[in-house]
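Consider what follows.

. . .
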Amino acid sequence: MRSPSPAPTQAALYACAIRLGDNNLILGQQLARWIGHSPELEEELGTANVVLDLIGHARVWLTLAGEIEGLNRSEDELAFFRDSRDFHNLLLVEQPNGDFADTITRQFLYDAWHRLYLAELRGSQDARISAIAQKAATEVEYHLQRSREWVVRLGDGTALSHDKMVAALERVWRFTGELFEDDETDRELAAAGIAPLPSTLHAAWQAEVMRTLERATLSPPENVFMHSGGKCGRHGEQHSYILAEMQALPRMYPGATW
């Protein structure tokens, strides 16, 4: 007879929701800067749609985090009134937009991971997490399709676009190792059947990425030192600038409503 899975602590459940909420919130904020500056009208609309999806995902994850935490903090309070050290997003999503090649490379590497993670969350033993993942997964399929096509288009395009993609991979690749790091929270969630161990997703992610890079006539950098710490609240300087821009009005006028 199979023994039941151990119940996860509230802290682990909160960490699961807050990490996913923070990933999508920070990436959505970053992408929103492209609105009005995209290289073509169709891409302008595509970027806006992805931003709306990511912010929408962030809202439901942060709302769930607030419910689990039990301190009556709303999604807005969690988004706008935490400091950088209290955010637990992956370092990858906070990297600068740079040029369009940087943004697309960052987006593709995250999308490939995000799709795999959500696919596993759809089978979560927590019905709330499973339901959110079920809805978000459909939208993330589109995100990945879009970013994958742009990687191929730019990598296998002109000499200039190819060189820009090579440079973008050099800048962004070193932040992908954190996607697959397991910590105590991850192990607790996996043991309870709530979320997958990140390390178990690496082979499938690598296969997706390598297939796309091959089509794009690109190769990942070799012998790269991988940076991490975002999941634990250790962020780069860029993170503070993102929050300063995002949180300025709510902190200037706390409690204001439309």
Summary: The mean pLDDT is 95.
